[in-house]
Amino acid sequence: MRAQHDYLFHHPLYLERCQRPACPSHVTLGRRYKALTAKLQAFTEYIAASEFAREAEFLQEIVYEDKSLCKAAGPVWHQKDRLKDHLPKNLRGVDKTATWSKSGYHGWVYGYGLHLTGIGNGFPVMFQVLPANVNERKVLDRKKDPTHGKRRAMYCHR
Question: Does residue 129 share a domain with residue 110?
Answer without folding.
Answer: yes
